Each structure stands twice: as C-alpha cells, then as structure tokens.
Amino acid sequence: MNDESVLIGRSSEFTDAFARGNIGAIVRALTPPGQLEPTQEQIDAMNQEISSRNDKQALAALLRSPAVRVGSPEELRSNTVPTLAVIGENDYKKKDVDAMAAVMANLEVVVIPGADHGAAMRDPLFLEALLEFLAKHRQVASDR
Q: Do 44 and 63 sit in the same domain of this protein?
C-alpha cells in the first residue's frame, strides 16, 4: 500500500491469455502455495467452464483496465458506508483486501476457508455472507 491511495490492481500479464481463451498460465500462477498444480486435463476443463460462462474479450478488457483507486488511507478511515468484502482464503487478491481492512472503517471482511479466487463465489458461504450483510443493513423506506 502506498502513502497516497489504496489501489486494487489489475494484472496485465494475463490479458492476452484470457483473450485467446488460454488460462493455463493464469491457473498455474494462481495455484495457492503448497497445492499441486492442476493437470492439463483439469486446466482444459476449467478453460471450457470459464469460456462457456464468460465473454473472453470482456475479461481481457477488465484485465487491461487501470488499477482502481479505492481511496487514500484517510478517506478509508472516514468511510461511513457499510461495506462487505468476501474473499477466498487463498485468493491472490486477499492481500489487497487485507490492506483495505487495515485502514477502512465500516468494512466487514468474510474469508471463505480454503477457497481461491474462482471457488469463493461458488461457495455457499459467499451468498450466505452477502444475504446476511444486506439484511443487517437493510433500510426500510420509512427510515429514510
């Protein structure tokens, strides 16, 4: 984290691979330390799943986008908006969430045990955490 702002970075090294629909290098790079790298057969299956549910060009464009400026540490400390971050324990972006959590007020972090970037969204805890957060912060029209 730099002194001026907290950034959520984009990884340009994987952009071309996404555009070509070849995620092997990405999957290998995102494999958590201590876990066996997936076989080529497993990578092919993941590639097919991702390609069938996503627009490869859109994913590549997302990766080409600049880092998102979340705010200066001062701005994050003064945040008044309830915010939720749901992240996998083995997600390569967890360090970014940890950096935000160190300074951001009103940030609730839910870590999904054993999950990586892709598996976190499919874990039932993801939806459970989201629904619980929304229910807790629901504002009834008469309260406004």
A: yes
Q: State mean pLDDT over 2-24.
A: 58
pTM over 0.85: no
- Structural tokens at position 112: 């999904």
pLDDT at 5: 44
Residue 25 CA to chain centroid, in angstroms?
18
Phi and psi of 39, rounded to 5°? Answer: -75, 165
What is the C-alpha to C-alpha distance for residues 122 and 28, in angstroms, rounded to an integer? 20
Same domain, 125 and 104: yes
Residue 2 within a domain: no
Is the domain of 81 the same as that of 110? yes
**What does DSSP assign to residue 108?**
E
